[in-house]
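Before the break, one more example. Copy the sequence into your notebook; we will annotate it together after we see the structure.
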Amino acid sequence: MLGITDYGSFCAAVLLFLALPGPGTFTLLTATGKGGFRAGAAATLGVIAGDQVLLWLAVAGVAALLAAYPAVFKAVQYLGAAYLAWIGLKLLLAKDGAAPVIDLQPGRYFRQATLITLLNPKAIVFYMAFFPLFIDPAAHRGAITFGAMAATIAVITLVYCLALCAFANVVAAKVRAHRRIARLLERATGAFLVGFGIKLGTQ
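Here is what the structure looks like once it is written out:
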């Protein structure tokens, strides 16, 4: 299909990678827990926007540029690590008993999710390694093939993340009635983000 070999396996691989826990997943869950489904949907669009930028940078060969200038790669990596850790610390240090804030401006969650996605330069390298696995050299059609892959990733991400947000919104409504459980989940999310930031910054 448009130069993509084994399209079904390509879709399955994208879905599998989405299902793996990562900072993007926790960003969606946190946004939904604090701002409801609307905030989760905004964060989903932020993840997709950031992911598409990294995807096309990979196509353009930015990974080769980062490899040629490791200091640039490290700078972006450290910036991403610091941002994740900062968000995690905010969750960890939030005052006990404080009610979740319902933010009626989802743009905040869109920007946050976009930044978290963009500040993971390893995603560029991932795409550089992932795409060749599903490209048919004989039928490859250049930008059309990459465009089809990018659109497929965006659609699968949208469907999966919105379903995740819908589920999280139902659970969050029940959790809000039990503030102690909600606080434990917030701290767990914060600890994960801090840990992921430290891991990213020390690799």
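Residues 7-202 form one domain. Confidence is low (pLDDT under 50) at residues 99-104. Try to locate both features in your own notes.
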